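User: Last request for today: this protein with iron/sulfur cluster, please.
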Amino acid sequence: MKFDFELENAIEQIKSRNPKKILIQLPEGMKTYTAEIVSQLAINTKTDILVSGNSNWGGCDLALDEAKNLKVDLLVHFGHAQFIKNVDFPVLYIEVKDNTDLNSLLMQSLDKLSSFHNIGLVSSIQHLHKLNEVKEFYEKNNKKITIPEKKGFAAYNGHVVGCEYNSLKSMVDKVDAFIVIGNQFHSLGAALSVNKPIILLDTYNMEIVNMEELKNKIIKQRAAAIDKIKDSKNLGIIVGTKPGQKFGSFENIKKKLENLGKNVFILTIDEMTQDKLTNFYNIDGFIELACPRIAIEDYNKYNKPIITFKESLVVLNELKWEDLVNNGFL
Ligand code: SF4
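Assistant: Here's the final one, the structure of the complex with iron/sulfur cluster:
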């Protein structure tokens, strides 16, 4: 199997909590393994198992309301490291390891890294168990590799989450470039956070990508979205209702936007979709305080401009566009 779901660990941990009924959450790309996971857990834990069919985008996205409504005894969240620290419900995070062999990618990457000597190394949670092995490989090839210390939402040294790049920022002056092991999502976040070359070891498409081109394209999109919000009269501030997706305070920016002559409406949404926003026909644009990657990643999915909390500070003249570009969008 591509993934190691740490089922022995999961079984032991579930049994130690003695639940009668559990709810399982799997990330989108891992739902395909539902049958294997559930049958193993059912045989070995003797619990009733329910599987959430709703989307699961990160460790922030705990199905707490679902678990409470279904009266389960435990929520088992696969695929992400612990993100929310204090939860008023029993939750078990089970990290998943990706077994992809990185050797060919590492060999391929040497060419793209030829002009860099001091390099920061990070990865998504699924590849974190290979970080020291990767470090050794590059050191044998005369690179100086540093794994940054964890910061903020990151659970481990060298761990990156899509909304947390402070570990990279903390060492940006000490390196020539960063290597990100994972996918485009994490490496684009890194490229939009630090002004250094980001080289992605893409374990899904098995290719090496310099993120510069995509970064520049996204920056142009962000500039256009911010300009459209500046010109909009009716604005919606979207407050996300997922438990770990609270970025910024709506009270504060609502007042300041009103002082600029805007009409501002506060909307609450759990999962953002174009269909939901279409119903707010007379609203010209949105500021979303849920996952900051929705505005950035899903730019083409929405008909109206959507910006993040941090980008709203540019609209409010509290942050210069140049500072956003130089110090990071995330
Ligand atoms: S807020 Fe967004 S980027 Fe951060 S962990 Fe959740 S889904 Fe990932």
